[in-house]
Amino acid sequence: MIEFYQAQTSTNSGKVRLVLEEKNIPYREIDINLEKREHRSAAYLKLNPNGVVPTIIHEDRILTESSLINEYLNEVFDGPDLVPSDPLLKGQMRYWPLMVDIKLHPATWVITYTTLTRPAKMAAKSDEDLKSEIAAVKDLSRAQLMMSLQFEGVRSPSFAAALQIVRSSFKSLDKALKDSGGPWIMGDGYSLADVALSPWLMRFENIMFSGIWSDLEHLQAWWERIKVRPNFCGIVSKRLDPAVLEKRSDRGREIWPEVRKLLDELQV
Ligand SMILES: N[C@@H](CCC(=O)N[C@@H](CS)C(=O)NCC(=O)O)C(=O)O
Asked: Is the pTM of this model over 0.85?
């Protein structure tokens, strides 16, 4: 049995849950509530010193980093092999989880902060309180970024840069799907590359931003195939209250027209 420390809507937790479901691995979810900052509690930091989700414990072994957890689960458990055996294909497959970790995830954080976190904070606190709260963030580059997103929103240059990264990542995925011939990123076999990308499309679809890729036909067709796979039930926690996702959609719907306009201006 895997002890799975996760947040119910977290993208990186979704990556791991997709593999647990795909390989039919028994697991028990332990909720880490990010809004309540449970990921920074002393007890959780002992498991995951970076203070992020997910973390797994398997037979007393602790593992962090979603892409590495997925490699581990794939090797240790029976079920479909999600990593190609050919060394070249394996290297090419691993490009995608790496790209997600270093590019797509940080850019998505910027867009999610602006769409969901920013209005929630604005409703709860005065500008002065928000400034003091952000100034207290220890990571200086993170604090600068939050200050700009909080007070400039979609007009922050960091928002435009993030949107550009997301759009160009999806264009490169569309091309890869065209080149592989599908149905999956690596061709015939569903792999950790498909797993790694799926939660990000889910996040953007949930906040009503699927217009970012709706003109990319190979990507769109792949996404429709992904959504009818049996393991898709793991993209978010099965215990998630659907009202949480509905509230997010409402927030995204409000700013989408501004985002659409920016996308057109960026011409990516
Ligand atoms: N590279 C890490 C990233 C983990 C990560 O940033 N998780 C997010 C949720 S999707 C998180 O815990 N965020 C809380 C925070 O950064 O304070 C992984 O892939 O596991």
From this structure: yes
